[in-house]
Amino acid sequence: MLSQLRSIEKREVAMPKRKASVEWLNSGDTNSEFYPSRLRRRRAKNDIVGVRINGVWCEESSSVKI
After folding, report:
1. How many helices and strands (H and E) does the chain possess?
2. Which of 39, 40, 58, 62 has the fewest beta carbons under 10 Å from its own?
3. Mean pLDDT in residue range 15-21
């Protein structure tokens, strides 16, 4: 009896998530710009604009030897 009640409770909790997923699939992604904008911000943050060589900050690529 208790296991049946838990099973029913799990299904009731999962139902709103399923409904939201179905609605999202039907309507499409209205926040399509959200993830690309996050990606652009992350790339900009991770961009290397310069390096410190012997205590001197260099931004020119000609100063940096690969």
Report:
1. 2, 2
2. 62
3. 74
